[in-house]
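Propose amino acids for all 267 sites.
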């Protein structure tokens, strides 16, 4: 499970994430949505230990990711939006390297690598150097590497970027299967159709604040609409939030009359 308790992250005077409180239980596929610059990537980097919160606490399966990062990372699989591989290693060598990093023994390593090669259909290119891979091939290998140690928590940033339709279907089916097996999945995506199809719950973040948390049905009720498309719901919600913010800003700029002022003017 993933827990955020009053998490804030600042960059100098700018607040990228503000007082985030969120809990994602085991077996849930959670989609994190929001416009560019909303705080999604900063949130992910804090989960995986690449950034420290300015304040607040993040826990993975009970482990504080700041105070006990090693224990948290052993339970975590991470697929970034841009896969980082070692160009001069083949796909199988890269998977071997990842298995050794997680301390898998020889038997586990052989079994897990064979399973991931089969699951992500890497057979045709797994013995080639990764420098020759297309983006989609790199993405599939990154997924295989993230799944290799059977993590309890999977964090994915834009999982479908560069994948062909068959690979997209493969990844969607696999994520649903992993959630059904009890894995906690945190997915950031701009592809609302993907979130609509596979997510159990969504969170909408904007300007560093979590604006909505719930199911699609709960979002429909909040907007008092029968629209079924997440795209329509998302746009309606964010536009309503922007309009409310503009109205609040305009109201705050209206000058407050001085208590000494008189309606009939100066004496």
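Proposal:
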């Amino acid at each position: 499970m993933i827990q955020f308790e009053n998490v804030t992250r600042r960059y100098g005077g700018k607040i990228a994430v503000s007082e985030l409180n969120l809990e994602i239980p085991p077996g849930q596929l959670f989609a994190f949505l929001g416009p560019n610059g909303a705080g999604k990537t900063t949130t992910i980097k804090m989960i995986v230990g690449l950034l420290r919160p300015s304040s607040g606490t993040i826990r993975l399966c009970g482990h504080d990711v700041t105070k006990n990062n090693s224990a948290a990372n052993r339970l975590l699989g991470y697929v970034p939006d841009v896969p980082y591989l070692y160009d001069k290693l083949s796909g199988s060598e890269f998977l071997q390297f990842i298995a050794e990093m997680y301390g898998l023994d020889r038997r586990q390593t052989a079994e897990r690598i064979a399973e991931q090669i089969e699951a992500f259909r890497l057979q045709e290119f797994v013995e080639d150097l990764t420098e020759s891979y297309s983006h989609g091939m790199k993405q599939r290998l990154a997924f295989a590497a993230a799944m290799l140690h059977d993590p309890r928590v999977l964090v994915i940033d834009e999982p479908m970027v560069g994948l062909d339709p068959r690979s997209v279907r493969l990844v969607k089916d696999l994520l649903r299967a992993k959630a059904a097996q009890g894995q906690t999945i945190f997915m950031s995506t701009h592809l609302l159709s993907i979130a609509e199809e596979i997510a159990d719950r969504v969170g909408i973040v904007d300007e560093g604040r979590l604006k909505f948390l719930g199911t699609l049905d709960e979002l429909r009720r909040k907007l008092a609409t029968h629209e079924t498309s997440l795209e329509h719901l998302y746009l309606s919600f964010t536009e309503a939030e922007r309009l409310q913010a503009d109205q609040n800003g305009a109201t705050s700029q209206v000058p407050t009359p001085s208590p000494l002022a008189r309606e009939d003017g100066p004496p």
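Confidence is low (pLDDT under 50) at residues 257-267. The beta strands are 2-11, 14-24, 29-33, 55-60, 63-64, 76-79, 153-157, 184-188, 201-206, 209-214.
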